[in-house]
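Record Carboxypeptidase-like regulatory domain-containing protein, 138 aa.
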Amino acid sequence: MKSLALKLFLFSFLLIEGGDLFAAKFVSVSGIVKDNLLQLPIENVMVGYDGNYTFTDSNGRYYLEIPEPGTYFITFSHVGFKLSVEVLIVYPNQGGEIIMRGDTYLIWEFSKKFSNKTQPSLYYDFLAYIKKDKLLLV
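=>
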């Protein structure tokens, strides 16, 4: 009887104290995804590797669990932005910020002075963008 009680005690001690022996270890990778023009966070960006993925929240934040430290190809994908693939050497509790490039790029800013008889000098500010191989003036 004493032997059985001792075995049960040892077994329950292993379950309580050694429970993490059988638990999977993960490395957490987290960060914020922003656009390249206004540096605003982007919601619903798919962040993943090897078929495992998550999505960014409304603040552009993501949290991804990776089985162990190492080198991974992490992809960042969203409609209207270029696919970004980052090679990351993952360390425990690593964080970071990814800047996504969209289809629209600011290429220059300029001012133009116009004059006529009623208003001798008017200044207009323009921003020039390229979007899908077209020049846009805003």
